[in-house]
Fold:
Amino acid sequence: MTACKLIWTGPRARLEAIETALTEVLWPPARAVSLTKAEPAAEDDETDWRLDAYFEEPPDGDALGALLAGIDGAGAPQIESVPDIDWVAHSLSGLGIVRCGRFVVYGVHDADKLPNEPGLIPIRIDANQAFGTGHHPTTSGCLTLLDRLAGLPPERVLDLGTGSAVLAIAAAKLWGRPAIASDIDETSVAIARENAALNSVAELVTVVRADGFDHPEIARAAPFDFVFANILAGPLVEFAPAMAAHVKPAGRAMLAGLTAAQEEAVTQAYEAAGFRRLNRLDHPVWPALLFARV
Structure:
């Protein structure tokens, strides 16, 4: 069986816009999306970039054209047939370590590249079929913002839509407090448990399969002092009332997965649910927001 790879090259900003469109609308049919600097290219060159998107089968041409119609210069991609292997792992392996404040996210293939500095918190996340290796700006943004909150340890933590469990693992390592990591996808749940064990926090991170907040473990632990929700804008808006019901007064909610264009709608939903915004990690496409329940 063969899979399909779509390739775009050009300016980074344009490819980031295409990546956003593919991630939000065509995922999970897009099994992996990888944005890398083309070689050779100067370190500060923003024009020579490459976007690879892997699909189980070629996407509908009309649907893809409509999806990209609003992106200036997107153009038609080059299409290649490729062997049917784990393209999530393939596209992410070898990308190197990710430094987010004191957090350093790495894969086993990059263990020898870890900085030898005091105070760093290493998190091993190997490339696999669960979202969240630290390379995407939504994950690195959450980790960077979390690093600023080290002095405010919560008692109860929830990582909603955990993916690889990188955020739950980071919280457990940073604060030494228990965390629940939930995801609706069975594969992600299994990988999250493996990652918690790999990072020696399995006794702190409880991983459950849940649709939103609907799980007995979540109900027993609520209300939470801190909730991560690195998902998408639609579910974030939908979950705003439930988030308020599961977060303590003065508890915090870190939201990511939304784009800058969707920020206003998400903010309005959470303000209407009784939250106020405390902080924002800026990114041209993928901001991370921190709210507190009033």
Notes: The longest helix spans residues 12-26. Confidence is low (pLDDT under 50) at residues 90-94. The chain has nine helices and 14 strands. The two ends are 53 Å apart (CA to CA).
